[in-house]
C-alpha cells in the first residue's frame, strides 16, 4: 500500500515538522512494515509553469515528425514574450494548456534545462510529459494536456503536487484494513495519540424500495450488497488533477472519471467498488455461484471458463462480473468519444454503483483459480469492513455528482444477511500474562478501545470486535494488540530457565553426529522443501504398487504442481544436484536429513486445538492419531569427481562405492553394524544397487539402498551421467542400536596383523564375508580391511578370491602369535561354515 503523506494529513493532524521518515518510525513501532519512504519531486527545480500553445509549425524535413511551437508562459520567462520550443509529441493542439519547463530548471534525474539548438531551431525549454516529471504513466503516453481553466504562468510544481513523500507499506494478511488510507490513518492516530477524522462517517440515506433491483441467491458468499444509481453524467468530464495525482502516487493509473472515482474511494475507505453502465445491464442484478463450464469475458478481454465455486454478478443474460475480482466487458464504462460530424461527445451517462461484501475464502480461491489477482481481490481476501459498503457507495455518488455534474437517484438498495457482532471474553490480566508485563486493566481497556473495540466488564472483559478487524478472533489476538501498541521494544529481555537434567535426546545427538560426519566426509547439506508432485515417482521408476507412492496430500498446497508430502528425500536432493550442475558446479556431493511422511492407518480427523488453555492429553492424543507417520531419513547424492586430479594424481569420479561408504559412515555414527547385499530397487541400477539392512530383535530388516542410479532415471530427471545416491531410515538404525555410543578404545600394546585369502562363489558379496569374519574373530579384532579381489584361472570358474587384513589387539597385554592365529582361524571357520569359503592355497 502506497500512502502519500499529503493525503494522510487530511485524516490525521500530524505535526507539521514530521517528515516521512518520522511517520515511518511511528508506524513501525505499532507493527506496520513500512518498507521505504519515497521523496517525490525532491530534485525538481523551477521554473515549471502552465503554458498555452499559440502556434505549431510542422517541420517535415526530418525522419520523424518535429514541431516548432510558440507557447505563452505569462511573465514566467521575465519578458512576457512567447516561448519558442521544439517538441516531438503530437497529442496536443493550438490552444491547449500544457506544462512548460524553462531554462535554468532541473527535472528528476539531474536533467538540467537550457536553451539549445536542435533540428535547425533554438528550443528555449521543453513541453513536458508525465514521465519526464516523475509522475508515472497517466495512460496517454504523451504530453500533459491540462484543463483549460488553469491560468497561464501558474506554478505547475504546486498545481501537479509534484513534491510529496510516499510511504510504501507491506501489509501483512492479518492487517487488511491497512490497504486503505482510512486504516493507515487510524494506526497513525493511535501512534501519535491524536484523533482521527474517519472518512467513512457520512450521512447515508436509508434503504428504500426505489433502488435498482438486486437478488442474492448465495447469502454466504455475499452477505451485503449496496446499489446506487447516478444519471446525467457529462461524458466529456475528466478526473481533476488532484484526483489523478493521488491515484498515481498510490500506484494506480488514471483511466476515466467513473473508474477513477471508484478506485479513489477504494483507496480511501478500503471498500472495492464497481461501476456498471446502466444502459448495458438487462434486468435485475443477481449474485450466485457460476455453473460449471459457464463462459464469461472479463474487462481484460480474456474469455474465462468458470468453476462451480466461482461467485458471479449477473443480469438476465448471465454473468456480468466475477464477484470481488473483476467486472465484465459487457457492462464496461464506455470511453468518451467525439462525433466528427456533429461534435457531440458520447459516452456513459448513467451508472449503477456496486458496493458489496463477499466471502474472503471464495474470492481468494477464485482469484487463484483464474490467476487473476486484482486490487479488489487483494482486499477482499484479507477482509473488508462490511459496515463501510454504504458509506463507500455514498462517497462515490457524491464525487460523481460533484465532478461529472450527475444526479443521484433517490433509490437506495441494500441487501443484508443478518449477522451479530463478534465478541470475545478475556480476563483483564491476560495480556499481562502473555507479555510478562504488568499493564493493568486501564491500559488494556484503553488500548483495545483505540483499536476500535467496545469493552465492558471488570475482571473479565467482554470485547466487541470492530467490523474492520475480522482477524481478531481469540483472546491472544487481543493480547497482541495491547502488546504492539504498548511497544514491543518495551518488553523485557529475559533468558529462559530450563530445569536441570534436560538436554538433547539420543535421537537428536545421533542426528547431529551423522550431519557432522557426512560434512567431514566432504558432503554439503542441502535443505529442501518437503513437497513433491506424484509424477516424480514415474521418473524414479517405482513400481505402481510401491509403498512410496502412497502419499499424504495437502488440502491447500503452496503449488498445484507439488500437492503431496515427500515419502523419500531423493526428489529434493536430485533436484538440487541438477540445479547446481546446470549452473556450472559439476563435482557435487550433497546430503540431507529430514522427515518423510507416510499415511497413517488411523482415519481420525484432525482436531483444532484451543489457544486459551493447554490442550488436554485426550485432545493431543486425537491430534497425534490424525498425523501421518513421520520417520527421519538421511540421503546423499553424488556426481562428478569424488577426488580431484592434480600433481598428486589423476583423481577419481564418484561411483556406487562412495554411496555405500556414506551409508557405512552413517551406520558407524549410529553405532550399528550395517549389512550390505546385492539388491534391485526402483531408481538404482540393477547391477550396482546395494540393499542396506540392520538386525532388529534378531530379524534382518531392510533400512535403505545405495548405489548408482539407473540410466533411465538419470535421463528422465536430467541428471549428470553415473549419478549415485543413498537413502537410509534413521529411525530403524536407532532401533537397531543399543542407544549407547561406545568411545574408541585405545591400547598401548602393539597390534598383531593376520592376512587371510578366502575363495568363495562369485555371487557372494564381499561385505557378507567381511561380516562373518567379524562375527567369528571375537573381541580381539580391532579392524578388518579388504585389500584385494582376484578372479581367474588360479581360483577356478565362478569363484573369486577375497584377501582381508585383520588387525588384532588386546587392551591389557601383548598378543602372542598363537592367540592372533587362533582368532583368525575362528573367523575363517565361521565364515567357511556359513558361506562355504575355502582358504586359498589350502
Key attributes of the depicted protein:
about 850 residues, alpha+beta, Phenylalanyl-tRNA Synthetase, Chain B, domain 1, Phenylalanyl-tRNA Synthetase, Chain B, domain 3, elongated
Structural class: alpha+beta
- What share of residues is helical? 25-40%
Low-pLDDT sequence parts:
none
Largest sheet: 7 strands, mixed
Structure, described:
With 842 residues, this protein is an alpha+beta fold. It has 6 domains: 2-42 and 165-192, Phenylalanyl-tRNA Synthetase, Chain B, domain 1 (2-Layer Sandwich), CATH 3.30.56; 48-162, Nucleic acid-binding proteins (OB fold (Dihydrolipoamide Acetyltransferase, E2P), Beta Barrel), CATH 2.40.50; 214-416, Phenylalanyl-tRNA Synthetase, Chain B, domain 3; 423-486, Phenylalanyl-tRNA Synthetase, Chain B, domain 1 (2-Layer Sandwich); 506-596 and 631-736, Bira Bifunctional Protein, Domain 2 (BirA Bifunctional Protein, domain 2), CATH 3.30.930.10; 752-839, Alpha-Beta Plaits (2-Layer Sandwich), CATH 3.30.70. It has 21 helices and 44 strands. The protein has a 7-stranded mixed beta sheet with strand order 30-33-34-40-39-38-37, with helices on both faces. Strands 3, 4, 5, 6, 11 and 12 form a 6-stranded antiparallel beta sheet that branches. The chain is elongated, with a radius of gyration of 39 Å. The mean pLDDT is 90.
